[in-house]
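ingest -> validate -> predict -> emit
validate: passed (alphabet ok, no gaps, 248 aa)
predict: started
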Amino acid sequence: MKVKTILVSQPKPKVENSPYFELEQRQKVKIDFVPFIHVEGESSKEVRLQKVDLNDYSAIILTSRNAVDHFFRIAEEMRFKVPDSLKYFCQSEAVAYYLQKYVVYRKRKIYVGKRTFQEMEPLIKKHKTETFLLPASDKLKPVVPETLNKLGVSWKEAVFYKTVVSDLSHLEDVFYDILVFFSPSGIKSLFENFPNFKQNDTRIAVFGNTTVKAAKEAGLKINIQAPTPETPSMTMALEKYIKDVNKK
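emit:
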C-alpha cells in the first residue's frame, strides 16, 4: 500500500530546514507531529523528599536540555543561589550550548562530552573529588548509574522531572499510513490512549533497540527501523521505504 500520511510521535521541529519537511516535499506525503509523551517537572517539595540539598554538591551532570531547565527551575523554587564555582558536566555540545540560557558561559567551569554518556567518563574521572548531582527524569538509562558507580565517584541521582503520557483522544478517529516512534514511552502512550489499537494496514517505524523491543512486546509488526548502516536517521529510513512502496 502506498504511503500518503505519516504521524511522528514528537513535537514539530522548530527549524525550517528539518529533514522531515524536505521529505514531505520530495515524496509528496503529509507529515503530522503530535508528542505522545511530555515532560512534567517535580515540585521543590518532591525534590526535598528525595533528601536533596543543593548546597551539598560541587558539580552538576546534565544529560539533556530538560535537565538544564529543571535544575535551574528547582534552584529558583528553593531560593538557592547557584554559586559561580559550580562545575557543569554536559553530555553533549547541544546541552552545553543550551546552558547559556542560564549562565554566562565564559565565567563558568563547563566540561563537555561528545555524545553518549560513556564518553563523559574521562571528564568525570579527572574530577573524581567533586560531589556530583545528577538531575534526571524518572526514566534514567541504566548506563548512567552503571558508569558513575564504576568510576567510584560521590554522586546522587534526583528525579527533577518525569515523562508523562499525553492525551491523544483527538486522534481517535484519525488514521495514518505510518506511525513513527522513538522510545518505549511512545509505544506505552499509544496503548494507554487506545487499548484496543489494531495495527491492520498501519506501518510502524521505530528508532533504537529499546523501542524495537517495546514494539515487539506490544505485538506490533515493525516495518521500518533505524538506525541501520544504510539508513542512520529516521528520515532516511522513511524515505527509502516510501520510495519502495510508492513506485509500485
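The mean pLDDT is 94.
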